[in-house]
Amino acid sequence: MTEKTFEDALHHLEEAVNKLENGSLTLEEAMTSFEQGIRWSRECHQFLEKAEKRIEMILKDEKGEYTKTEFIDDQTDCL
Question: pTM of the entire structure?
Fold first, then answer.
């Protein structure tokens, strides 16, 4: 099984949005695309939150120099 990436999730979100913007879907197809878009949007948001946490882990040491500390992800799955 391939690990999901932010780029994969964003691609799926863009596909869902494009289908909705096309305007040629039935109501049921539009609802399904909307639901998928919401799911992919949440997944993208989670990737961005993790990236933000990693960025925040860059700290200044006693000398005023930046050092990087390891980020330990406490969430085992995204959705």
Answer: 0.69
